[in-house]
Amino acid sequence: MVTLQDVAKAAGVSIATASWAINDSKDARIPQETRQRVRKVAVSLGYRQNALARGLARGQSDSIGFISDGVATSPFAGQVIRGAQAEAWQNGKILLVVDTNGDKRIEKETFAFMMERQVEGIVYSTWVHHAVEPPKELRQVNSVLVNCFDRRRQYPAVVPNEIQGGRSATEILLKAGHRRIAFVNDIDSSPAAIGRLEGYRQALSSYGVQFDPSTIIRAPSNQEGGYRSIEAVLATKATAVFCHNDRMAMGLYDALHERGLKVPDDISIVGFDNQEVISAHLHPALTTVALPQYELGVLGIRTLLESTEQVKPQTDETSQTKRKIIHVTCPIIVRDSVFPSNQVIHH
Fold first, then answer.
1. How far apart are CA 102 and CA 274, in angstroms?
2. Cβ distance 180 to 188 under 8 Å?
3. Per the record's keyword annotation, is Signal included, yes or no (predicted)?
4. Are 248 and 223 in contact (CB under 8 A)?
5. Nearest 5°: phi and psi at 225?
6. 3-state secondary structure of 271
7. What is the largest CA-CA distance in the chain?
């Protein structure tokens, strides 16, 4: 391997001069002719710079850390990493990805690893949208939270717009003429459950439909939860159902089929998340609202690369400055599970 010493010797300069020339150090007083000669020699010898040494010389490493608790291994949230990687690459940066699987020991070692490599910032992401207690190590470097937020808002955060998503899901059914719409929501309280319910209520209000608490059904947010909600759903006399996620919708499909009821002929269904392995392969294919996974990754990196002053982490826990939370639009994915109501009321 060709070393910096080899380059310096061939160019007839000191190792320090060779380093300054190759790293284009602005503070070093080196004649332009010398800089060009050293670089030509380096190219002719096939010299390759040490990335860590170059980062030390330039004061930046061109690398960004991405730490998650399961995004990389979850079946659909890996799109967050794809978006982050694409945006980082477009800005000349490399993404260093570590999935800790929620192991605090691994997380602590990961921070040490990234600090040693002088990452220019860290994206800290979770695969479930929720409030987090940010690791204290985030204070050492510019940091952004993705798909999560801290209640004190010490860090910028990029999260799905759950209220808009719930409103959009309900409006799909309202625009099809449905006015008796059940909402099968998660039994546990979360930003998704709270936000999607608020969006549901906003949509009803905008169409002049009075909110009826009896149309809200709570169930575990999985296939079994959707399946077991069938009796409560039928009791509401609803012509359409908005399900908290696609897995619940899949369970409801099964329960309806067992009772000889068809989607969407007898009852229309809208899901949430757009887990394509589910939603695109149900029969009929499920109309749903997608989580903007790819966009979360893109905007996480974009926010991180903003001015240092804007993204600088809060080191004083008593600070009253609140960092911004970016709410990313959840897009509608129209498929075949919604049918116009036989009692269409034009809005």
1. 25
2. no
3. no
4. yes
5. -60, -45
6. strand
7. 88
Which DSSP symbol is given to 23?
Answer: T
Q: In order of start, what are the domains of the chain with their CATH numbers?
A: 4-58 (1.10.260.40), 63-155+293-328 (3.40.50.2300), 162-291 (3.40.50.2300)
Beta strands across the sheet bearing 216-219: 216-219, 181-186, 240-243, 268-273, 287-290, 332-333
Mean pLDDT, each 10-residue run in order, the chain (347 residues): 88 88 77 90 84 57 89 74 94 92 91 89 94 92 95 95 98 98 97 98 98 98 97 98 98 98 97 92 97 96 77 56 91 95 44
Peptide bond just before 31 cis, omega within 30 deg: no
Structure tokens of 158?
A: 């990029």
How are beta strands 332-333 and 325-328 bridged, if at all? unpaired
Angle between helices 79-90 and 293-304 (to 10 degrees): 40
